[in-house]
Structure prediction request, 527 residues.
Amino acid sequence: MKKLFQHKYLFYKLRFYFKHHLECFLSSFEVPIKSPLKFIYISMPIILSILMIFTFFLIYKNIENNLYNNTQERIIIFLKKNTSDISVNKLRKIISSRDDIISVKYYTEIESLKLYAGGDGRNTIIENFDYNPLPKTMVILKKFNNISGEKLYNFLDKNSNIELYKSNKIFLKKIKYTKNIVFQLSTFFIFSLIALLFLIINSFIRSEAFKMKQEILICNLLGARSSFIRRRYIYTSVIYLSISFLLSYIILQYLFYLFINSTLIILNQYSADHVFLNISFVEALFSYFSIIIITMIVTFYEINKLIKSRIS
Amino acid sequence: MISFNNVCKVYSGNKVLFNTNLLIDKGEFIFLTGSPGSGKTTFLKLLSGLEKPNKGSILVNNENIVNFHHDEVSDYRKKLGIILQNNYLLEGETALENVILPLKINGNGDTQNKAKAVLDLVGLNNHANKIVNYLSEAEKQRVSIARALISGPEIIIADNPTRDLDQELSRKMVEILIKLSKYGTTVFVATHELNLVEELNQRVFNIKNEKIVPA
Prediction:
């Protein structure tokens, strides 16, 4: 009989425990549902911070992705007319033996002309020529490297078979410089905004908890355990942060859609190679859980501070 | 049984209680008297676990409440009915919601009927659904008393519970507490109203020169 009573008591306590969880969960939606404008006003700094973090993260990610293809240096060598096939092969062999060379392609005069004609609208230009203006050509693709690159250029300068050569080295240098600046700025802004978001969440929870100081003290006075007092505030802050995160994500997706639509027109005009990357599901989930964990820790700390404050 | 053994309490160099000893049986009704600042509130705070003594032990049912950690103090306080000078009510909630709060914390059922019955006992049945902020100080005081009574506490700790009440109401409220003590609740009432103390003829302790002595 005693055992049965104990089970009944346990069941009753469990029912109370889950009921309180449900009450706390439902009461957290009171402000967002009943007065959404007030909710947006309260959570605006959080929404903006999350949005900014995502924006800088996307900039970082897309620059990394789109500028990767441009990290290969391309050198076009125009050979002298009288260069023999043996000299060409010798030159090709010397260049290919270098570690930083990705590929070396050789084109005869006719092949060079075909290669040139491959471009849009150039066929009509060629048709008007009564002779082939293009020499034997060599196209080298190499890894972009400031130091080892100089040796190759010295060799090309001194080689008697080479009439002229062109490289995209300066363009790549500019791109690399810009990419580094954007990377550094994005990293700086991402970390600054994460710190700012932490401060905003902290002050948001502190002000919300301070408004409820009297209630916390009363519950403490009446014998409520710390976990019982904290439960409601943890639910409230987690729900608020979740809704703020969701709103930021929706706004970001809308802005991303607008950005892509407007830039696609420009990029297509210049036939530029591009792939725009969005925030992946894993990244979004990771960010969400990081924010929620921060929120829970801050709420736990702030409410505990109030629970331990003295009753006068 | 409640026993204070060599309890000392010092606030920033000022001794409030020094080597205080006291033994109270279950179901006793105690009046605590003494001049303002003599240490009545401190004594009640020590008993309710809101303060810890600098020295000594406080045994309640053979358990030293001084050694309790935070959650144990919370569980201990569930067995108490506390009425403090500052009423500590949820000003934005109704009287009924305030009275129900201890039951919600304890996870008890049938909260509404119990709360209404207790509010009826203190004469506030017509004010049950009024927001506390709009009640008079005397009514707030009675809400606070009702809240202390609702969970059927083992010990009632009342610091000046008749402060804002008229003589008739004061007597009525204290009589309720005396009645409860007859059912086994130990009651401590700190008061300045010596007339009431004399009139009701209960056990009285006086706090004087950092000691608790029978009056």
Remarks:
- Chain A has a mean pLDDT of 84.
- The interface with chain B takes residues 12-13, 16-17, 20, 214-215, 217-226, 228, 307-308, 310-312 of chain A (CB under 8 Å).
